[in-house]
Amino acid sequence: MTSHLRSILISMLVALVTTAAVVVVTYLSFPVTGIRVEGATMYPESDAWDAVSEHASLLTLNEEKLERRVEANPWVQGAEVLEDSESGIVTVEVEERRPVLD
């Protein structure tokens, strides 16, 4: 085996180990442990759970995408996503629309 090929294989091995370490740290150190929806009476909390992947991490959670998905519900006027890094809980603050005939 030439020294050039050996260098390439060692570099690939180091890259693989580094990638695996990053994945483990990301998903195990900062998991989403819960989702709380506040300010909603018509928006179901289960919809917020459905919008977050099963093994989500606080480091990889796309807050803007989650807000847009919540705001796609006709009852929701606006949403804000907050993360608590200590508890791992994601809070979705929802502002609902008012019914026209109330």
TrEMBL record:
InterPro entries: POTRA_FtsQ_type. Gene3D superfamilies: membrane protein fhac. The chain crosses the membrane at residues 7-30. It holds the Pfam family POTRA_1. The keyword Lipid biosynthesis does not apply. The keyword Transmembrane applies. Keywords: Cell cycle, Cell division, Cell membrane, Membrane, Transmembrane, Transmembrane helix. This is POTRA domain-containing protein.
